[in-house]
Amino acid sequence: NVQRGENGVPTLDASEMLRDSACAKADDMIARDYWGHFAPDGSGDPFMFIRGAGVDYSTAAENLFYSTPGGPDPVDSWMQS
Prior knowledge:
By secondary structure, the chain is mostly helical. The chain has four helices and no strands.
């Protein structure tokens, strides 16, 4: 939200349902050993998890980031993308 504010974009509120969706997606990636928006068999798209958490939306997106200790900062990387 700091970056959003500095760029004149409205801040966002935290959503427990979206947090649950993100955790379910992360659990799926760990359980099925993949890293991506879709599982290797083509299933497991982020929207399936968002709907599964009960979120009603008109537009949605997913940001994935993986880093190791001392690696790039996720916010800096997102701002560069």
